[in-house]
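call fold(seq) -> tokens
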Amino acid sequence: MLITSIEQHWSLHNAGIEADLEGFDGRVVYQIRADEGEFVVKVGKPFYSAQEIAQELFIFDFLQSKNFRSAPILLKCRDGSLFRQLPEGFAYIYHFIEGEKPTLSTDNYQKLGELTAALHQLEDYPHLGKWSVSDVIGHIIADRTPHLPSEIKNEYLQIAESLCAMDDLPSCLVHGDVSLSNCLETLSGEIVLIDWDGCAINARISDVGYPFLQFLSKNLVFDDEAAKAFYGAYFSVQQLTDKEFACLFDAALLPALNFILFGCIDENWAKIKWACQRRESLMEKIDKLRN
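ret:
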């Protein structure tokens, strides 16, 4: 049924499902092969309206128009639309990217820093974010704190409530989930950013801070070289204002606090505590890369 609908609405012939890929957020994801090549089809999000799906997928047209090539390419329907409403749900198709998850190397973090800076320089994206930094902080306080062990709850709440205001800082098009785990490395070594669901106009610092605690291992060893590679590459293209830089560490805490319930809470909390105790020395290292 799905394959029949795909061939009806997209210019694909002799299509067949190659693999059932991991989906989330109520979606199913398949890798398909057709005479025209290999593709990825995503189906689902029944709780979205057609307008919301169109807004979410607009980013791929926009990136192509700006010659930003380090993102998936959407295959438009026969009628030029970005998606179709099928019996199974909203469906849209990407060109398949042959590659692997990138290694956590300094070279790849440098490429990620360059990509993030290039993204932040794109202008005229029309859609504001569905969330703000203050929304995320409110979510952390209201929805995360009640589920934490009592011995860390008060200190966690104090950290969350002390985060600086960021919504009035410079804004731009942000990815919303800057991480090598949200990338593919192509056979030619190019890094491609995927998972653009959270992209929108929002506080630039939210993207810049996002990967910071990814440089801290479960064993509480901070990878100075990886951090230098990412931030050195970013600052070589895009500078932050002093007000933004003053909020960088708090922006780094945002995802760590928000995702504390995912995985091992004790390990996640240990990383937050370790970083907070070394805030000044960590930021001094990053500050040197700005000059």
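The domain at 2-95 is CATH 3.30.200.20 (Phosphorylase Kinase; domain 1).
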